[in-house]
Amino acid sequence: MEVITGNESLLTLLTIGSFLILNKLITSTILGKMKADKTKWFSSTYFNDFHRQAGIILNFLLAFAFFWIFAFGEVYPVLGSAPLVVVILLTVCLTAYMKWRHAKNRANYKAYLLNVAFTAVFASVFVLFVIQIIP
């Protein structure tokens, strides 16, 4: 495979950032429409020790996934961004599961289940977009 030179890793990260911001805005709109509890952008409310430990592990994996993009993103754009997509999907799924198990407001679970679906769609669109913009 031919080695790609340039700033493809930076372009991939900017694309990820724009998709994450768009996903967060859509999620906030869904939470508001479904009368779910509003969450802050950078809040970390854990339900129990398992949730806290899993969240910490996923945050370390998220940092590793960003380094993975810089290491392999220029040579293999899809393979370079795949760990990040997987970690983000795991984080959203963990949040939906914990809301289902422990949240008092059942609308929270339903809203986060929709968030899992939207995140999967955004991840698919992101991978297809990366394939198109990076030669």
Q: What overall geometry do the principal axes of the alpha carbons give?
A: globular
What does the average pLDDT come to?
77
The separation of the N and C termini measures 12 Å
Following the backbone from N to C, one meets helices and strands in this order, namely HHHH
| Low-confidence regions | 1-5
Number of domains: 1
How many separate helices? 4
Helix content: over 70%
- Strand share of the residues? under 5%
Number of strands: 0
Largest sheet composition: none
What Rg is obtained from the alpha carbons, in whole angstroms? Answer: 16 Å
Backbone structural class? mainly alpha
Protein name: DUF4181 domain-containing protein
InterPro entries: DUF4181
Organism: Salibacterium qingdaonense
Transmembrane segments: 12-32, 53-72, 78-100, 112-134
Q: Topology, please?
A:
Elements: H1 8-33, H2 49-72, H3 77-102, H4 106-133
Helix pairs in contact: 1-4, 2-3, 3-4
Question: Could you characterize the architecture of this molecule?
Answer:
With 135 residues, the chain is an all-alpha fold. It has one domain (8-35, 47-133). 77% of the residues lie in helices and 0% in strands. It is built from four helices and no strands. Helix 2 packs antiparallel against helix 3 (77-102). The longest helix has 28 residues, at 106-133. The radius of gyration is 16 Å and the shape is globular. Keywords: Membrane, Transmembrane, Transmembrane helix. It comes from Salibacterium qingdaonense. InterPro entries: DUF4181. The chain crosses the membrane at residues 12-32, 53-72, 78-100, 112-134. This is DUF4181 domain-containing protein.
